[in-house]
Amino acid sequence: MFVLRPVSSNKTSNYLNPFQELDELERRFFSDPFHEFVGRGDLAEFKTDIQDKDDHFLMEMDMPGFAKEDIHLDLNGDTLTVSAERHSEHEDSDKKKNYVHVERSYGSYSRSFDISGVAADQIKAKYEDGVLKLTLPKKQPELPQSRKLEIE
User: Fold this and answer.
1) CA distance 16 to 129
2) Which residue from 53, 69, 84, 130 could staple onto 64, CB 3.0 to 4.6 Å apart?
3) SS3 (DSSP) at 93
4) So what's the pLDDT on residue 16?
5) Looking at the domain 43-137, which fold is it?
């Protein structure tokens, strides 16, 4: 179904272009072909809140529908990567089965964070009720060391 909308032009008159919606769809598809899948932000990235709790950061990530076993936390230098994979029920069995319509997202998702100010060896993680909670203790500031120098 097409919506007829007035289109402004350089001319003094306006006209209706029944193909404008098709043009816009084509433009959106070729500039960002996966907009319909990840552009809405459904699970393109985990929605995350980070709070500063004086001696640590508290990171809470919404990850509904993931099994704890499918969530992975990886440290690589000063980068923490949270990744998860969700499989669909109809993926392994008959693709059509009894489904009339499928909207839930399935696949692999990941997000990375700079943790250069965090004591990586003390990070704690907990997952319950679809929320991953990470306690990220802050690094203690290194005090400059003082020493006396001998004069030659």
Assistant:
1) 51
2) 130
3) coil
4) 62
5) Immunoglobulin-like (2.60.40)
